[in-house]
Design brief:
It comes from Blastopirellula marina. This is DUF1570 domain-containing protein. InterPro entries: DUF1570. Keywords: Signal. The protein has helices at residues 8-18, 81-91, 112-135, 155-166, 202-212, 218-235, 247-257, 279-287, 293-299, 307-327, 329-339, 350-360, 365-377, and strands at 22-30, 33-45, 48-52, 58-62, 66-73, 97-100, 104-108, 147-152, 175-177, 183-187. It folds into three domains: 8-73, SH3 type barrels, CATH 2.30.30.520; 81-236, Glutaredoxin; 239-380. It contains 13 helices and ten strands. Helix 3 (112-135) crosses helix 5. The radius of gyration is 21 Å and the shape is globular. With 380 residues, it is an alpha+beta fold. A five-stranded antiparallel β-sheet has the order 4-3-2-1-5. The chain has a five-stranded mixed β-sheet with strand order 6-7-8-10-9, sandwiched between helices. Bound molecules: zinc ion.
Amino acid sequence: MNFARTSSLVLVLVCFVAAAAAEDTLTFRYNDAETTKSGKVIAQGDSGVILETPDGMMWPILADDLISGKREPGDFQPLDKKALTEKLLAELPPGFEIHETAHYLICYNTSKAYAYWCGSLYERLYRGFVNYWKQRGVELVEPSQPLVAVVFDNKQNYAAYGKEELGDSAGSIIGYYSMHTNRVAMYDLTGADAARAQGSSQRDIARINSILARPEATYLVATIVHEATHQLAYNCGLQVRLADNPVWVSEGLAIYFETPDLSSSRGWRGIGEVNRLRLPQAKRLVQRPGGQLIAQLLIDDDQFRKAETALDAYALAWALNYYLLKRYPDAYCNYLKHLSERKPLHDPPREERLAEFQKYVTSDLTALEADFRKFIAGLR
Ligand SMILES: [Zn+2]
């Protein structure tokens, strides 16, 4: 995010950040309307602050949009499961229900079976994700409140919900994770094929699974797994929301975990497999002579946002994560641990990104580039 200017209000809030047991109430402009929220100021920079509210949302507020702020004694606590459930039901359109799993609140107006299918998919991903990092010496933490997924019955209703954050592009995106709300949103991918039965029997769920296990659905399921992986990374302590997260790390990791495994009811075997959707593109790019692919990935986040370079950037981000996790697992995990200590709003100069990567992984980027290209070109 780019906060533009400073104001005296921000300076007042500097002392806010240091205080422990307090409740901050800020009035600010958001989407052209004035709003007041209470929570905890978790970061402040020259150009604004971030307010975390008990529902798990984070509000990046530009200094220019801050109208007033006050701090009172209080104890910031995230909403517990019951209170969060009530808030979600009050906020979502009529007709929504909530399916509760060990780590998730699945909010749905789909069939019950579809919500159960999502809950089971996400719990298996959760287990796979935590175990994967544990085996590599990265201890994650339990999320501070249940993770929220909002599942719509159809694409139109989902796009209407996503419009505030994504604009009209919501309609062309299958699902997304919002750093602002901390929720993932998606819709029923079975479409017209869906078993519209309201039951949640094993037979109903198995029917959904068999529809989505078809090869033509692989990409759709991969996308919702990808978005759920972002949510896990930001809630289990691997990454910090609204901090300087190099995009190649965030996106490459999400792709690394996205290979769906719908064949098993317990484990998740897809983690760390060669990503068949991205490999051909990655191979083409590493075999094209010239350029410093790695150095470019480390410093240039914009290539992920521009339509003409995004597909290449995603493929390379996957390839570099894959390569580092296979070839330099310890060094890369230490680099990730270092990134996980970042503070929101800290925006280091791009050269710093190169230097810290060199410190944790290898100082010789030229040799690394040559080995990376050879490794990816040789993947089958
Ligand atoms: Zn992503």
